[in-house]
Write a structure and sequence with these properties.
With 171 residues, the chain is mostly loops. It has strands at 18-19, 41-42, 64-65, 87-88, 109-110, 132-133, 155-156.
Length: 171
């Protein structure tokens, strides 16, 4: 369905367990309200540029979300990642300007540019288990209001908090 700009699906068939790379790139009218409960994997750039995609949750069984999976999904409003996801790939939520807060219970790694340009993201804390934050991971997140960084954090990439004008780090 890559580039099918008139595709306006609101649901996918039950039983879908994996959505491959680039499956719905630039399907600007794609308006899925949920994903199949059986889904475990979302490939690289699966929903890249799907500006009407307004999901608020992901199925609990998801364990893998590919690089750029939701890049440019300006209506995406997820509030939590499934517990089975431990790593967020590069640019996964790049320019998702409707993301306000996202619970990441078991995340240990945030990739390069993962939340870059998420101007509404207003996190005040990160999960305790995070050890690595990639290059430019939060660059341009002008609403990001972190007050501290996790004690387990060992790696912070270049430009990670560039342009984060609301940061209030004290420790």
């Amino acid at each position: 369905f890559y580039g099918c700009t008139s595709l306006a699906l609101t649901s996918l068939p039950a039983g879908v367990t994996s959505i491959g790379e680039f499956a719905f790139v630039s399907c600007i009218l794609l308006a899925l309200t949920s994903l199949p409960a059986e889904l475990t994997s979302i490939g690289d750039a699966t929903f890249y540029g799907c500006t009407s995609l307004a999901l608020t949750s992901l199925p609990a069984g998801i364990t893998s979300i590919g690089d750029r999976a939701f890049s440019g999904c300006t209506s995406l409003a997820l509030t939590s990642l499934p517990a089975g996801v431990t790593s967020i790939g590069d640019a996964t939520f790049w320019e998702c300007t409707s993301l306000v807060s996202i619970n990441m219970p078991n995340i240990t790694t945030i990739g390069d540019a993962t939340f870059s340009g998420c101007t509404s993201l207003a996190l005040t804390s990160l999960p305790a288990g995070i050890t690595t934050i990639g290059l430019s991971a939060f660059s341009g997140c002008t609403s990001l209001a972190l007050t501290s960084l996790p004690a387990e954090l060992t790696t912070i990439g270049n430009g990670t908090f560039y342009g984060c004008t609301s940061l209030a780090l004290t420790s």
